[in-house]
Design goal:
The structure holds two protein chains of two kinds. Chain A is of the alpha/beta class. Chain A has helices at about 10-25, 60-65, 95-100, 110-115, 140-155, and strands spanning about 40-45, 50-55, 75-80, 85-90, 125, 125-130, 160-165. Chain A is built from five helices and seven strands. In chain A, strands 1, 3, 5, 6 and 7 form a five-stranded mixed sheet that branches. In chain A, strands 2-4 form a two-stranded antiparallel sheet. Chain A starts with 10 loop residues before the first helix and ends with a strand. Chain B has five helices and three strands; from the N terminus they run E-H-E-H-E-H-H-H. In chain B, strands 1-2-3 form a three-stranded parallel sheet, sandwiched between helices. By secondary structure, chain B is of the alpha/beta class. The longest helix of chain B has 17 residues, at about 35-50. Chain B is flat, with a radius of gyration of 18 Å. Chain B has helices at about 5-15, 35-50, 70-75, 85-90, 95-100; strands at about 1-5, 15-20, 55-60. Classes of the chains: A alpha/beta, B alpha/beta.
Chain lengths: ~170, ~110
């Protein structure tokens, strides 16, 4: 690995994340080969920026302010035609202004559509997703949110997913 | 398949396919309105979906962020700190819990 993973973090965050990485135990890593050529695949995106549409429920910032150890483990559905005009970023641990100026910085749905037009991938899924990246206890994320996302993606015949951190 | 700005930590968790990039938090695909720069990152991710031979496949993108870490952080210094930072500034002895992953059980929703 030639990238310095901790280059852009402040000192305290760097120490904490290095400690987490050193303590992490890897189990069996799942792997599913693509079932067909990439140019025929339906692709969905997941952003951890905490993106929610204006007509949807916001991520719960108030509860996190009351209990800073807690992060909202739910997800929001982001239809393909959503732009930065239609949505807001609720993640309080990143600067939201970059993704707010151009949603493709965190959820590259327009870039995905372009890659489909170029024939690199088959098509973008009709529905994409956002979760909130600050979750210290991932139990509900793993046990409830992830399976719910998988169910919806299966319903949309999604072949591959790109997970974009924030 | 996943992108990560902290690939060391993401690899430690263990993911099937990973693309590492040395960009600051909040800007995983790069600068706003840099469509070409965004597209090449997403394309690299998607191509790894097809080309990865097995689990824990890792590739690094060579792109260099145009600012130093200090400059990248300064761009956001007018924002309020996240709640956990405010709490730990007030009660620094709790930092050891974060470091050790001892996360208090969530308070019930009000």
């Amino acid at each position: 690995m030639s990238i310095d993973s901790y280059r852009f973090l402040d000192f305290a965050s760097r120490q904490v994340m290095k400690a987490w990485a050193a303590r992490q135990e890897r189990g069996v890593i799942p792997f599913t080969p693509l079932a067909k050529p990439l140019r025929e695949c339906t692709i969905a995106l997941i952003s951890t920026a905490g993106v929610a549409r204006h007509d949807d429920r916001p991520f719960d910032q108030e509860r996190e302010r009351r209990d800073p150890w807690w992060g909202d483990p739910t997800f929001r559905l982001i239809p393909l035609d959503t732009t930065e005009q239609d949505a807001r970023i609720y993640h309080m641990h990143i600067d939201p202004r970059f993704g707010q100026a151009d949603l493709d910085v965190v959820l590259p749905m327009r870039r995905l559509t372009e890659l489909a037009h170029e024939g690199i991938v088959g098509r973008p899924a009709p529905r994409h997703y956002s979760i909130m990246g600050y979750i210290l206890d991932p139990t509900e994320l793993v046990e409830k949110t992830a399976p719910a996302l998988a169910d919806r993606m299966r319903a949309d015949d999604v072949d591959g997913v790109a997970l974009v951190p924030a | 398949m996943a992108l990560s700005m902290i690939p060391d930590l993401t690899r430690a968790v263990g993911v099937p396919r990973l693309v590492g990039i040395s960009y600051p938090m909040g800007r995983p695909l790069g600068r706003p309105h840099d469509a070409d720069g965004q597209r090449v990152i997403l394309r690299a991710m998607l191509e790894l979906l097809a080309t990865a031979p097995g689990p824990d496949t890792y590739v690094e993108l060579p792109f260099v962020w145009p600012e130093s870490p200090a400059q990248a952080r300064n761009a956001s210094k007018d924002l309020p700190p996240p709640p956990i930072v405010t709490l730990l500034t007030r009660k620094p002895w709790l930092l050891v819990n974060l470091y050790n992953g001892r996360i208090p059980h969530p308070a019930p929703a009000a």
